[in-house]
Amino acid sequence: MSEQSTAPVPVSTTFQVVGMTCGHCVAAVTGELTDTVPGVRDVQIDLPTGQVVVTSDQQLDQAKVAAAIDEAGYQLAPGSLS
Ligand SMILES: [Cu+2]
């Protein structure tokens, strides 16, 4: 990777989502986050632990993240995003 002053520095945010049980859940959460939270580039989800790692162009809007998880039908683990 070359250094370019104009390129945004990706931000990595990790949090925990409760209730995901299969690949469909992962796809739903990934899609909702990608579609509704500004700046999201990549979403990585570890199903067994419910750990979600979001790479984004800017600091994530926590309210939008919470809304996206809720919209997908799951719950943000309390205190995992602060
Ligand atoms: Cu599922």
Question: Can you tag this structure with a few keywords?
Answer:
82 residues, alpha+beta, Alpha-Beta Plaits, four-stranded antiparallel sheet, 2 helices, 30% helix, binds copper (II) ion
Description:
The protein has 82 residues and is α+β, with helices and mostly antiparallel strands. The protein has 2 helices and 4 strands, in the order E-H-E-E-H-E. It has a 4-stranded antiparallel sheet with strand order 2-3-1-4, with helices on one face. A hairpin with a 4-residue loop joins strand 2 and strand 3. Helix 1 runs antiparallel to helix 2. The mean pLDDT is 93. The structure holds copper (II) ion. Copper (II) ion binds next to helix 1.
Structural class: alpha+beta
Strand content: 25-35%
- Please outline the major beta sheet: 4 strands, antiparallel
| Global Rg | 13 Å
In CATH, the topology is named Alpha-Beta Plaits
Mean pLDDT: 93
User: Tell me, what is the CATH class?
Assistant: Alpha Beta
Give the fraction of residues assigned to helices.
Answer: 25-40%
What is the topological layout?
Blueprint: E1 11-18, H1 23-36, E2 40-46, E3 51-56, H2 62-72, E4 75-76
Antiparallel strand pairs: 1-3, 1-4, 2-3
Short note summarizing the structure:
Helices cover 30% and strands 28% of the residues.
